[in-house]
Amino acid sequence: MAPRSLAAIALLLTLAACGTTAEAGPTGPVGSELALPFDVYRLGHADESRIKQAQSLLVLRCMRSRGLEISLPDSVTAPGPLDLSPNMRRYGVLDDATALRYGYHFPKTADEAASSREIQNWSSKLTDQQRAALYTEDGKPGCADQADTDIAKDVPDGDGDFLTSQDFDSLDESAKNADVVRAKASWQECMASAGFHYADPKAAISDPQWDLDSATVPRVEVDTARADVRCKESSRLVSVWHDVEVSQQHQVIEREAAQFERLETDKRTRLANADRILAG
User: Fold this and answer.
1) Closest by Cα among 221, 182, 180 to 204
2) For a tag site, which of 32, 157, 173, 216 has the least CB within 10 Å?
3) Does residue 100 sit within a domain?
């Protein structure tokens, strides 16, 4: 599938955040207590579901207006781990049970795994005519792209980029805090004593020997992830880092109050547009 196709279909359907077919059990999410001030400016799972329903309806109408019928894969309606706990992997793997079962792989619910397979199967069966109508080609907006534009009516361009940029900056800047640096050094020493040599948790989870797209989780990955969790606990890295980020994000919101107020307005506008579309 072309990269553009993947980008557009993500506007319509709920896709899992990371590529692994490992399926999560019914247990609750870990890290749900790691809320951050920026979170309130993002769409929650229920809000995203409303928007995706509206987008799907727009796509169907648009395709019919072009003389084409198309069926769309079902969206995942039950929230997955990342939906329930958006920050669950912000600081890496957080609990031993997850590390034991998945290593550094990202767990999917059975619904998410099935939906990913369904989307790939659906996309592979699109005709050339359907694909050309769905996605932008030669400057002509496709139905999927037009649906996103309609949802974003009256929302200024670039606001989403602002929040994304601030979010990355928040993680990077908080990592430089003296307390966080000390906690990471303690984590590093703990890992080294267990035979694992990494500069920080990001280096551990990004180790190129891990194939995080594979359904198989090797024992060495599990052992490393479990040591990672133990060292996070002994160093108090996660709690220290989270506390610093909370403080820094509050400062950013206060400093950029007008921009964040506009983000809140934009969020309400998108939801109002979705509700209007769904109401017919």
Assistant:
1) 221
2) 157
3) no
List strand residue ranges (DSSP E) for the chain, in order: none
Q: Are 34 and 90 in contact (CB under 8 A)?
A: yes
- pLDDT tens figures, 191-243: 999 999 999 999 999 999 999 999 899 999 999 999 999 999 999 999 999 99
The reply to whether 26 falls in a domain is yes
Q: Are the CB atoms for 142 and 12 separated by under 8 Å?
A: no
Report how far residue 153's alpha carbon sits from residue 270's, in angstroms, rounded to the nearest whole number.
7
End-to-end Cα separation, the chain, in angstroms: 32
110 has a pLDDT exceeding 80: no
User: DSSP class of residue 140?
Assistant: B
What range defines the domain where residue 190 resides?
A: 3-93+106-278
- Radius of gyration of the CA atoms of the chain, in A: 21
Task: Give the chain's domain count.
Answer: 1
Residue 178 lies in a domain: yes
Distance CA 180, CA 184 (A): 6
In a domain, 169, yes or no: yes
> What tokens appear for 278 in the block?
């769904």
Residues 269/154, Cβ–Cβ less than 8 Å: yes
Report d(CA 127, CA 132) in Å as an integer. Answer: 9
User: Shortest CA distance to 142 belongs to which of 69, 51, 66, 50?
Assistant: 66
pTM reported for the whole predicted model: 0.80
